[in-house]
Amino acid sequence: MTAKTGDNQAPLLRSFVERIQAWQDEKKKIGDNISEVYKEAKAVGFDKKALAIVVRRLKMDPDERDMLDDLSGKYWDLFVAGKYPPKPSADEKVQVELTPSKKSDAGTSDDGDLPQGM
After folding, report:
1. How many Å apart are CA 13 and CA 15, to the nearest integer?
2. What is the average per-residue pLDDT within 31-43?
3. Domain range for 38
4. Do 33 and 55 sit in the same domain of this protein?
C-alpha cells in the first residue's frame, strides 16, 4: 500500500519517523543495560554464556523446554555412552589416494554431479 502524497502527509510521515527513532534509541539503551548486567554477573563469578542460556530457556514454553531437555539428554547419553562407532585410530584410517580430477567444459568434476568446490 502506498501512502498518498500531499502537503498534509509530511507531518504524519515525520511523526512515524520520530516514533521509530525514539523506539530504536530506547532499544539501544535497553541493550546497553542488559550488557551491563552481564558484566556485573561476570564480575562476581557467573559465566555469561551459561547465564544467557538460562535467560533464553526461561523464555521458552515449558513443554518445549522439557522436550528439548529430554531429547538433548538422550543425544548426550548416546554420545558419551559409546553407543556409536568409535573413531578409527590413525593406524586404522583408510588411506585415500587423491588424484586431480579433470574439469569438463561445464565446470563439473568427473562424476558430473557437482560443480567444482562442492
Report:
1. 5
2. 97
3. 13-45
4. no
